[in-house]
Amino acid sequence: MACQNNLVVKQIVDLYDQISKLVSLKPSKNVDTLFGQLVSTCLPTDTNIDVTNMCEEVKYMRSNLIKLCGEAEGYLEQHFSTILGSLQEDQNPLDHLHIFPYYTNYLKLGKLEFDLLSQHSSHVPTKIAFVGSGPMPLTSIVLAKFHLPNTTFHNFDIDSHANTLASNLVSRDPDLSKRMIFHTTDVLNATEGLDQYDVVFLAALVGMDKESKVKAIEHLEKHMAPGAVLMLRSAHALRAFLYPIVDSSDLKGFQLLTIYHPTDDVVNSVVIARKLGGSTTTGVNGTRGCMFMPCNCSKIHAIMNNRGKKNMIEEFSAIE
Fold this sequence. Notes:
8 strands
């Protein structure tokens, strides 16, 4: 059983000890350095370490570390969203997103998620919901700007201040200001309307522990339209010290389609599932959207296979 006698796990535990003693997790030189070291330590995927099979002490540490990472990530997004929203009135904050330290990662993740979505859906979604969008809704922004120019994005967050900051980011953009809508609510209180979305994204930090993550998924399953796609963020190998894991057993009422584990600096794994029932060739309510152009998912598969890492992609069904 892997535990603190493993060198890498010991490094992670040592970093956790330092992070947990910080007075504040808001961006600062010390905070940025420690979390930068933590991410670098957790990036390697060529390891047989299974975080679910560790001693209770490490499991407890991991649970706390994920919460600390989520809190720090929230502060980081809030910090940069405030800076971007404070630009002069004649400047569009979306033209300066590159100042956010992980913007490049979001560009890669957005492209990956768009390609995988294209593989498992025959029509372009007209409406997408993102649950847990936060003060800097980069996934919605990247998808709307670069991949889905005619789709409307409904962003849900429990924090009204986060939504105010996020709305301010897109308010000066002539396009996204019309296609990005913000809702301040706990997703568990959202019942009506969830069946209107072709695709629902569930952010990695919605449900910081297994019980609350499953509770959110069960609520979405109850209220999403049959045939709608659920996209989730998960984590693999050492990266599961940073984010919660979504297992296939957590997706009752859904058909699991793909789990994709990146091996580059994109930390999150991508999980795609479809609500049971309904059609895969039409949108919700029987509407038929525009057809997707052929995606490069086959290229992704070929690249991964050529690298000898084909098990980084877990396919559960063929394209319908």
